[in-house]
Specification:
The protein is of the alpha+beta class and 579 residues long. Helices cover 35% and strands 16% of the residues. It contains 20 helices and 19 strands. Strands 1-18-17-13-12-9-8 form a 7-stranded antiparallel β-sheet. A 7-stranded antiparallel β-sheet has the order 7-4-3-11-10-2-19, covered by helices on one side. A 3-stranded mixed β-sheet has the order 14-15-16. A hairpin with a 4-residue loop joins strand 10 and strand 11. Helix 14 packs across helix 17. It starts with a helix and ends with a strand. The structure holds 6-diazenyl-5-OXO-L-norleucine.
């Protein structure tokens, strides 16, 4: 049976598609398998899809696909557009990770464009005279900024794996910055929330407030002419348009006028790096994710290895028994994170963390009926021998290429400092280092010596753009913001699909839980039953509800030639653009 796509999507929207499942391979053009009856339905398309945190930028990416660009072109265009349309986390002044599946050769490549510490950075740079961490300096000074990686990373992806020209993929971002766009409700709210902080920086005030100093309201046209200028430098001169020449000069000038330590040499030396992604398996699925300097991939795989030894399906989704085992796996993984993870170009990250036999050892320490207090869990290898924001988008094209990308300024609006004349915010990613090893960072994460500050080193991250492969082909592309909660968000989203057969929308929006070893608290999203809370407390789990959602995925599931997309719509503005 063949239905026109528009007809199909209206049926889906109206909830009129009849329930059916089939195991037979559907004929091309046949209706996709919809597990009707689940709580949420994904968007469905055939030719291309961009799932992102904001509508205009998703549409920019889709436009690249429509005009014949591939998933990498669309991802790069979306990445630049989000720098304009989603300033709280979309960025030029930050960094991130991109994981690409190339249909040609069925292989994955990973681009690390994480910020790097300026060469002059030192271990104790954020400590005050008493040896305590000066949080103001660590979060909001110019020294909080690492050397930005986003422009290098997006351009490297485009050069090597894209097909359209730099000018083509940058044109929509330039137009959006130049002509402006109507401020959305969510964005006006974000800006108002940060108004006091942003107003403290003259250049940020010039960008994020009207000329008369009044804040933007919903519907106001938001223009960013300086940002358009910066984007044009990049369109014209590529990598050097940002890391050398007038843009770099403005960054260095801002640093010199204030307390910054980033130099022209730091900028000129910055390069994105291609790294081998980390790989694991779970009941026949292959999981490909972010390697160090992200901790995400390693710990997702470590937790999956632990959980593979239990019959999770029999426990039941979000039963107390299931959440108990999730929490025990999470605590052990985050304890390891506190000790073993750091920039692999500076420190050794033990390979054993993702071994199945290491998981066997960890599993033995888990009591199925009783929580192990965090204080009794230590990083495990030796014995055997924010308000904040980040953003993620996922792209798939008709040829089978898939991109999953997470990038960030660290906090919402980074260090809240705009480089005068450029229109872009700087990150505060230096706060992801252990300013004082052994103490908690902005996300409550305790981190160790391996993640201490050193010049040119990349701070440890939790960002986890992830692919799940089924029969060797991409099945799920996902990722999330949420600082320390990114890793557990991605874990539960893929478990929801792999173990509980949820469609990607239900997988994205089913209530999640989070434990990060320290603090010893198990957070439960609204929607986990109070009866479950009672049962968890009886097992000794320090469980409590959180009012905010944990993370926020932007995901695509690829199945039988169809694309299923979902943004976790419990947070505003996310958008699936597809055709
Ligand atoms: O790289 C990291 O892990 C953090 N800088 C990410 C920050 C973040 O996700 C904040 N978002 N909600």
């Amino acid at each position: 049976m063949k239905l026109p796509k528009i007809f199909l999507s209206s049926l889906l929207a109206l909830g009129l598609v009849l329930p059916f499942t089939t195991t037979a391979e559907p004929a091309p053009g046949a209706l996709p398998i919809i597990d009707y009856g689940e709580r949420f339905l994904p968007e469905v398309a055939r030719n291309g899809m961009v799932v992102g945190p904001e509508r205009l930028a998703s549409e920019v990416g889709l436009d690249m696909l429509r005009r014949g660009g591939n998933a990498v072109d669309a991802a790069v265009a979306t990445g630049f557009a989000l720098a304009v349309t989603y300033p709280r986390a979309g960025n030029l002044g930050g960094g991130g990770f991109m994981l690409i599946h190339l249909a040609d050769g069925d292989r994955q490549v990973f681009i690390d464009y994480r910020e790097a510490a300026p060469a002059a950075a030192t271990r104790d740079m954020f400590l005050d005279d008493t040896g305590a961490v000066d949080k103001q300096k660590e979060y909001f000074s110019l020294q909080a900024a690492g050397v930005p990686g986003t422009v290098a990373g997006l351009l490297a992806a485009l050069d090597k794996y894209g097909s359209l020209s730099r000018k083509e993929v940058l044109a929509p971002a330039i137009a959006l910055a130049e002509k402006g766009y109507p401020m959305s409700f969510a964005q006006a709210r974000d800006l108002n929330e940060r108004a006091v902080m942003l107003a403290m920086d003259a250049a940020a005030s010039a960008v994020f407030f009207h000329d008369d100093g009044s804040p933007y309201a919903m519907g106001d046209t938001f223009r960013q002419p300086d940002l358009a200028w910066t984007l044009r430098q990049i369109a014209e001169r590529g990598h050097d348009g940002f890391y050398k020449g007038p843009v770099a000069a403005k960054i260095v000038d801002a640093m010199e006028k204030d307390d910054g330590i980033m130099t022209a040499k730091d900028l000129a030396n910055y390069r994105s790096l291609e790294r081998e992604p980390v790989r694991g398996s779970f009941h026949g699925f292959e999981v490909v994710s972010a390697p160090p300097p992200s901790s995400g991939g390693i710990h997702i795989i470590e937790m999956l290895n632990i959980l593979e030894g239990y019959d999770l399906a029999a426990m039941g989704h979000n039963s107390a028994n299931y959440i108990h085992h999730l929490a025990e796996a999470m605590k052990r993984a985050y304890a390891d994170r506190s000790e073993y993870l750091g920039d692999p170009d500076f420190v050794e990250v033990p390979k054993r963390l993702t071994d199945k036999d290491y998981a066997v050892q960890l599993r033995k320490s888990i009591d199925p009926d009783k929580a192990t207090p965090a204080s009794e869990i230590k990083p495990g290898l030796e014995p055997v021998s924010e308000s904040r924001d980040t953003t993620h988008f996922s792209v798939a094209d008709a040829a089978g290429n898939v991109v999953t990308n997470t990038y960030t300024l660290n906090f919402s609006f980074g260090n809240h400092r705009v480089v005068p004349g450029t229109g872009f915010l700087l990150n505060n990613e230096m706060a992801d280092f252990a300013a004082a090893p052994g103490t908690a960072n902005a996300f409550g994460l305790v981190q160790g010596e391996r993640n201490r500050i050193e010049g040119n080193k990349r701070p440890l991250s939790s960002m986890s753009p992830t692919l799940v492969l089924r029969d060797g082909k991409p099945w799920i592309a996902t990722g999330s913001p949420g600082g320390s909660q990114i890793i557990t968000t991605v874990l539960q989203t893929i478990l929801n699909a792999m173990v509980f057969d949820m469609n990607i929308a239900t997988a994205a929006m089913s209530p999640r839980v989070h434990h990060q070893w320290q603090p010893d608290t198990l957070l439960l999203e609204q929607g986990v039953s109070p009866d479950t809370l009672t049962l968890l407390l009886a097992r000794g789990q320090p469980a409590e509800y959180t009012e905010r959602t944990l993370g926020r995925t932007q995901s695509i599931m690829l199945r039988d030639g169809w694309l299923f997309g979902a943004t976790d719509s419990r947070r505003p503005e996310g958008h699936v653009a597809a055709y």
